[in-house]
Design a protein that fits this description.
alpha/beta; Rossmann fold; four-stranded parallel sheet; about 45% helix
Length: about 100
């Protein structure tokens, strides 16, 4: 068993700076951090390259990242939790993962 906790970051990809900051903070606290692969909202990629099939694939990939984790950390800046993040929280709870929040 590893001495390091595995934490998957969840939240809207419009909060790119918060993802980067929390990844750094949690890593420096001695955690293995799993994050998003791209920042579709912050980088404008949802308007240019993310179709419905890719969105569904990315949502499923993120649930597999939750499967690998001991817990999730929700980046809910200003209390914002969108539908994808809500689905990830529900999945984490259903699979007995601890859920922590930025706010």
């Amino acid at each position: 068993m590893s001495k390091y906790k595995v934490i998957t970051l969840c939240g809207s990809t419009k909060f790119k700076d918060e993802f980067i900051n929390e990844n750094k903070r949690l890593t420096l606290e001695g955690n293995i951090v799993i994050s998003v692969g791209l920042f579709g909202h912050a980088d404008g990629e949802y308007e240019t390259m993310i179709n419905q099939d890719i969105k569904e694939m990315l949502d499923d990939l993120h649930k597999r990242k939750i499967d690998l984790a001991d817990e999730i950390f929700v980046i809910n800046k200003n209390g914002y939790i969108g539908s994808s993040t809500k689905s990830e929280i529900e999945y984490a709870i259903k699979t007995n993962k601890k859920v922590n929040y930025l706010e």
